DNA sequence: TCGTAACCGAGACGGTACGTCACGTCTTCTG
DNA sequence: CAGAAGACGTGACGTACCGTCTCGGTTACGA
């Protein structure tokens, strides 16, 4: 049988130190240069202590990222769905433009070859945000601001997918200023009126 | 300074063998499991011969992928822009659903920590395809099928970005069948008429 | 600074296996053909484990040689210095005539381009033997068997230097039988009486 | 059949340039750091041109060394054999104390794992010198300065072997000043009179 | 209150792949 | 058409991290 360590016995001080060290190293040296050994050393912790609780450096950093960005809350709701989306898109662009964006990109990168990480990344990071937006969009649909025949899950993808895509591929720099225009394109469509 | 070997002296047989071996290994074992040593061995080539001409395994595989998918050509042009986009989207989804998609994802992953690779991936792989689509969309604009006030570069991103995004994040499986619907959403917008 | 691993934590089983493998490979394939990788493989050990404790293959083999020939003891002392030297010279010739001689020659060879190894070879291998002989010769001087005005360190060199020299240069095959004669030349001098 | 290049066709200019470059590089960077590629580059010559005429870098450097130190001549002959030996020993010590000594040591090192080189080193470099000394000692024997019952070949070994030995092992620094004393030890023997 | 069992730090271990170096051979182009 | 230039297959180098595995030392719970 697996030893199955008891999470209650987890040393709080170590846990914190690991998450803090992981995030600081990732921000300082770049995601790819972080190693489990370096995290352990920086946290003043044995390597085994990390492997006891996480399967990989990516898992540590994902939890650290989640821990830092905190429980996601902020879907704006002013009643004007277009404005709310634009503001939120600006927020995403700004957040991902910092070191956190680089870390997120590193996690996505590792997830390409690690299905378990991909699942965690989805469940623990992306989905809560998507879910909150689906709810906001549902409300907008109910208010008659958006088409009722488009699944809101699809809407979220169409609205935010291009931003994440550009961040990963780096086609062009992300500019928070023209989000309003882009939202207009999506809401009103690309056909002439 | 680097000695910068003369490309004219490159051995054609080795060059081919390397590209073929790289692609076959990547398809068989998965991008992440490929190593430069394995490529060299499979190609019957010295490791140094690879490092002489490419900076990394990713660069080899990128060239191999480009070499295999050949000179990009296929933007459909039936006169119906919506149908053309839908067909193309299906094509992308089908192409990336195979082993080639996994390879492409691996390249994007490596590019997150390797700016030079990111640049190559953009210039050598993505941009030619984007460019071809911009031309097709320009034509559609001229034909009055699309809004003239939206940069076609942006259109390409809005149309295909979500597909690539979903491929990388794996939010939901990609389904080639509903591309028509999705194109409709984008062309007509998410607002009620 | 180097991390300087703690020798107390050295794994005894690995240590032994490395020394044994090193000596066996050197004896079987010849000193020059031994590689660190081969030692590691033969010892069932990671290459890094060798590099953790020794700076080079030569250092491993030197320790292995020292370990095998054991703590040097045997300076004969029958009271007849001429006979004792002759016997010892025979011993040296016989010992170095075997595979061990080839190994020793390899170490001397490497030491020509590696001052640290040269120092180790001197301190750990040659000097203990020289020292023991100096003591024996001191006793002979006290007994009036040898000149008191010649430093015994120099004597050791004059007595054994030519043997080692011939081994290295291979001028003529070493013959254990005529050691007595050669000792006579050295003790009584090359001038006619 | 072996191609067996005709030595007459050997390009004189290249030959010279190779020998000169080899010796200069060896003197400047140390024997061990010299590579065939570096010699070729420094001589403005293709690598193949070196391999056509010599089997290894050691062979090149041996010929270069021989070429530089020129045809050996200098055995002093004043009629006083003790003085002549002392002067010659000083000469050896001085010569080998310079960069040439380092080169010679490198050659001896390589010869330990290369029987063909060992043979060349002996035949082309050591033996001529030994031979000349044997002749000088034969004369001294005839003059009654040295014992007639000791082979002069052995004498040469006893006289010079310890010097070469010390140079290779580096037991103590070589001092040209006390050669007279050392010759005295050897000629008069280590026993009290 | 005191075992005793788990967690902890430290870091050595067997591995895998890295990117570099030099070898000795082979090929191409040029003077 | 000889030879410089240098690409080639080969193989070992020494390094970096991986994820696992001892080691004592230190909690912290239950008898």
Automatic annotation (TrEMBL), chains A, B, C, D:
The keyword Lyase does not apply. Pfam families: TetR_C_11, TetR_N. PROSITE patterns: HTH_TETR_2. InterPro entries: Homeodomain-like_sf, HTH-type_TetR-like_transc_reg, HTH_TetR, Tet_transcr_reg_TetR-rel_C_sf, TetR_C. Residues 12-72 form the HTH tetR-type domain. It comes from the Bacteria. Residues 35-54 bind DNA. Keywords: DNA-binding, Transcription, Transcription regulation. SUPFAM superfamilies: Homeodomain-like, Tetracyclin repressor-like, C-terminal domain. This is AcrR family transcriptional regulator. It comes from Kitasatospora paracochleata.
């Amino acid at each position: 049988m697996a030893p199955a360590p008891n999470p209650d016995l987890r040393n709080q001080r170590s846990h914190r130190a690991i998450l803090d060290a992981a995030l600081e190293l990732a921000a300082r040296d770049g995601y790819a240069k972080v190693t489990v050994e370096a995290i352990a050393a920086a946290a003043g912790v044995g390597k085994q202590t990390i492997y006891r609780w996480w399967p990989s450096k990516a898992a540590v950093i994902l939890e650290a990222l989640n821990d830092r960005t905190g429980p996601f809350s902020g879907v704006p709701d002013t009643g004007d769905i277009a404005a709310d989306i634009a503001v939120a898109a600006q927020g995403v662009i700004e957040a991902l433009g910092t070191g956190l964006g680089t870390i997120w990109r590193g996690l996505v990168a590792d997830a390409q070859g690690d299905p378990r990480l991909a699942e965690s990344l989805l469940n623990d990071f992306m989905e809560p945000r998507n879910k909150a937006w689906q709810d906001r969009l549902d409300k907008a649909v109910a208010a008659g601001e958006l088409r009722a025949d488009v699944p809101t899950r699809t809407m979220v993808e169409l609205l935010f997918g291009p931003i994440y895509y550009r961040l990963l591929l780096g086609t062009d720099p992300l500019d928070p200023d023209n989000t309003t225009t882009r939202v207009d394109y999506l809401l009103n469509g690309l056909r002439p009126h």
